[in-house]
Structure formats: structure tokens, C-alpha cells
Amino acid sequence: MQPTFRKIVIFGAGLIGGSFALALRKAGAVGEVVGFGRSQSTLDEAKRLGILDRIGSDVASEVCDADLVLLATPVAQMREIFARIAPHLGAQTLVTDGGSTKCDVVAAARGNLGDKLAQFVPAHPIAGAEKSGASAAMPDLYLGKKVVLAPLPENSRQSVARVRQAWESCGAVVSELTPEEHDGVFAAVSHLPHLLSFALVHDLAQRENKDLLLSFAASGFRDFTRIAASSPEMWRDISLANRDALLQEVKRYADELYVIHQALQNNDAAKLEEIFSLAREVRSTWTQQ
After folding, report:
1. What residues make up the domain containing 107?
2. Are 108 and 79 in contact (CB under 8 A)?
3. 180-202 per-position pLDDT tens digit
4. Which of 176, 211, 232 is the last residue of a domain?
5. How far does CA 8 lie from the centroid of its chain?
6. For the CA atoms of 260, 261, 264, 270, what is the dihedral angle to 10 degrees?
7. What is the distance between the alpha carbons of residues 248 and 82, in angstroms, rounded to a whole number?
């Protein structure tokens, strides 16, 4: 039986790209996977782990007949990749990405894909982990997880459906937002929490008694700071790429902290309980959905 995707090319064979390839393999939806990346050791490992069939040596010859190209690199690298692949994309080759921000990636695509722009369907899999690299890739990473598509006005319905099919073959639940809606939503529920986690650990790391503090840190601290083990390079790029929306969320959170500060300063037990009760109710409802 012919696989859904005869050939895919992946830029970045780490957690996101590697899991995409493994999931499609598990579903029998891909024939050949070719990989490109900055690190030869990562590519070699990805090939050894069965993520890649081949390590690409010439971008032009690989993307010209690919069914699908996935950009699974940090978002700051995508502009250069768009410029590299644009002259060589086949007429039927679609491009998607795994970036955590969308407006900047769309701008990079508009500036570098030229008349191939309609072949790019932006995406964001909501299925990351604190570990990275090819060894972290797993075939079930996307199973039951959300993937957001952020289609462009230039995309055909057929192109969007084809990219949706790829992610659904990985077991993902696919929804759609505009790039602007996407970046506003994820500034609040993903990018801000990562900033807060990094900031808390960074604060403790600079204290003279950090070893004493960490020796008593238990499950609450571990749960809250788990995402501070994520890639600093990736989150640097995400933070700057979604700077405007993230600045708004940081300001809102600072205002919320000031309300709590005032409640503590004023011994306002009722205000503290009001805040904690609403937060508890909303989180309990959310986790039961």
C-alpha cells in the first residue's frame, strides 16, 4: 500500500521533528525521511535511531520532489531556511513548521518564499517536553495532543487539508487559529509560564544559600519549575519573537502580583482567599475537561 507521504524532508531532527517522523512511520504514512540540521552528531544519532532514512547533502535535490517539508528548528533559524528552499520547492511540495510563534514565522515566509508562499501552511504542535535532541523523540509524542494550524489567505483548502492529514496521522487533534490569535493565546498560557519558571530558578540560583533552599524544595517546586529545564536557545527565540504579546502578559501578571502584595501587606485574608478560591475553581474545572 502506498504511504500517504512518499517523501518528507525535516530540518531539525530533534524532539519535534524526530517525533513527527517516528509517528508517521508508526502510522505507515511515510515512505522516506530525509534530514538536515546544524549538528552532524544529531543527524547521525537520528539516523541511528531510525528517525531518518538519509542525511541530506543537497537541499535543492531533496526538496524538489518532497511531498512535505517540516521546519522543526528554533524560530530564529526559519528565515534562512525559507530562503534556501524557496528556489527549489516542487510545485506539489508543501511546507509546514513546528514553531511556537506564528506571526514572526509568517513574516519570514512572506519575505523569503516569494511565489511559493501559498505552499506554506504554518503549524504549532502543543506537545513539547523539557528534553531535546534526537534521543528525546518518541512516536507517541503527538498522540491526543493539540496541533494548531494558522492558515494563510493564500493557502488552498487542499493544502491545508493535506497538512492537517499529516498531523492527524501522528495522532494529533488539529484546530485552527489566525497567526495573531495564536500568538496572543500562547503568550498567556505557554510563553509566560516558561518565563516565570525560568525567573524563579534564576532568582534562587543567584542567592548565597541556594544549595540550602534547593535541598528543601519538594514536589510543588519541582512541578512549577519543570519547564525551566527546556532549551534556553529555543525559549530565547520564542520570547523575542512574541515580544509584544508577551510584554502585555508580563505586565498583567505583575499587576496581579501587586494585588497579592497589597493583600499580604494589609493582612487582607478575605482578598487572599478570594484570589486562591477562584484560581482553584478554574484550574479544577480545566483539568476535568
Report:
1. 5-176
2. yes
3. 999 999 999 999 999 999 999 99
4. 176
5. 19
6. -30
7. 30
Predicted pLDDT of residue 130: 58
Q: Which DSSP helix (H) or strand (E) runs through 97?
A: strand 94-97
Count other C-beta atoms under 10 Å from residue 54's C-beta: 14
Sheet of 30-36: strands edge to edge? 54-55, 30-36, 5-11, 68-71, 94-97, 120-121
Same domain assignment for residues 80 and 122: yes
Q: What angle do CA 247, 145, 49 make, to 5 degrees?
A: 105
Strand partners, 95: 69, 120
Question: The C-alpha cell of 120 is what?
Answer: 506554506
Higher-confidence position of 145 and 74: 145
Give tens-digit pLDDT for 231-277. Answer: 898 889 899 999 999 999 999 999 999 999 999 999 999 999 999 99
Q: Using CB atoms within 10 Å of the CB of residue 137, give its burial: 0 to 12 exposed, 13 to 18 middle, 19+ buried.
A: buried
Q: Are strands 30-36 and 54-55 parallel, antiparallel or unpaired?
A: parallel
Instruction: Say if residue 164 is in the same domain as residue 196.
Output: no
Kindly state the helix (H) or strand (E) to which residue 186 belongs, with its residue range.
helix 179-186
Q: Which of 244, 235, 234 is nearest to 103 (CA)?
A: 244
Residue type, 282: V
Are 194 and 251 in contact by the 8 Å Cβ rule? The answer is no
| CB < 8 Å & 24+ apart, contacts of 206-214 | none
CATH at residue 101:
3.40.50.720
Contact 97, 11 (CB under 8 A): no
pLDDT at residue 26 greater than cutoff 70: yes
Q: pTM here? A: 0.87
Count Cβ atoms below 10 Å from residue 145 Cβ, excluding itself: 16
Q: If you write DSSP's letter for every residue of 139-150 in order, what string do you get?
A: TTTTTT-EEEE-
